[in-house]
Amino acid sequence: MAYLEMTTKFWRIELPTRGKRVTTTYGKVGAKGTTTIKDFPDNAKAKAFIVKQVDAKEKKGYAAAADPDKASGSRKRKATTAAAAPASKAAGKKAKAAPKKKVAAKKSSKKKAPTTVKAGLSGQAAAPDSEDEEDEDGDLAVDEGLTALDPKIAKIAFVVDGDCAARLALVDPVKNSDKYYILQLLQAKKDFYVYRRNGRTGTSGQAQLDGPFPLAEATDKFQKLFKQKTGQIWDNRDSNHSPANAKLYTYLNSTSRTAGEGTWEYHLTRDPMGKPDGWYPYDAPASDEVEELYQTFEVDENAGMSVRYVASATSGYTYRVDLSDYTQTNTTSGKARTIRRVDE
After folding, report:
1. Is the pLDDT of residue 126 over 80?
2. pTM of the entire structure?
3. Which three-class secondary structure string do you get for the chain?
4. If pLDDT is split at 50, 70 and 90, which confidence band does 11 have?
């Protein structure tokens, strides 16, 4: 059995002697947590799995700690042992003083100086879904753009408290403009970083990583940046909040989605290149992007996100996508087409 903690989170993994069922519990310290069970064909494979999982957690910054569920039993054992131990005075012997241990001089450790790393993400996929893939703890995964900035940190970093992250949108119909902004507070071992990624919707954009900082300083910078972009205080954030001016981003609500994924098609008529009238599938990147906009609007219930503007890397055009009446309009030519969603 192993019990580990990191900042406000705990992780416990258990296996009965000679057993084949591994029980894992994780969550916020002080809470009951979430429990998962995994069965193995034999005890040896179950033990190997535990060793691998513990190693992975320690690399993420978790450390062994006293398991609160075992603390009460431990206290009882200590009390019994103390009562049974013979007193030196009662035995008429003078207790010998323990030999003094030499204290090694502490090595001076230099504090890492914070740096800023920036990179364009040209050639990579467009920004990921607002509901990022969750890791084995049920926490939000780190944005993939981090790999371009620092591959080593990207391998071990995770989102602080599992939810210190936000996805924002800035839609301007007058300029046919649509931008996204991803913000995450990250931890890599004992260091903390502020990560951001932004660009035009439909593009990979650019990313920036600032740090390392102490937790308090990183949190302060994360929350100030969130307020600067949205006009909202992080602890009181609300996806229904209307930005005070056109330069502020909207904070997008993100739910635990249950709707299945879909693909998108457009209806072609009177094509100048001679294609027959009918339904044609979007290319994969465009379909994925429109599906994300649909999920953000329809499933996550971001009511103000029914009309979006998507920059197409394939055609070079920007399209106005209306998810209320299912149309797309080329903002350059003004050509409008009907679109539809096909369940996978």
Report:
1. no
2. 0.67
3. CEEEEECCEEEEEECCCCCCEEEEEEEECCCCCEEEEEECCCHHHHHHHHHHHHHHHHHHCCEECCCHHHHHHHHHHHHHHHHHCCCCCCCCCCCCCCCCCCCCCCCCCCCCCCEEEEEECCCCCCCCCCCCCECCCCCECCCCCHHHHCHHHHHHCEEHHHCCEEEEEEEEHHHCEEEEEEEEEEEECCEEEEEEEEEECCCCCEEEEEEEECHHHHHHHHHHHHHHHHCCCHHHCCCCCCCCCCCCCEECCCCCCCCCCEEEEEEECCCCCCCCCEEEECCHHHHHHHHHHHHHHHHCCCHHHCEEEEECCCCCCEEEEECCCCEEEECCCCCEEEEEEEEC
4. confident
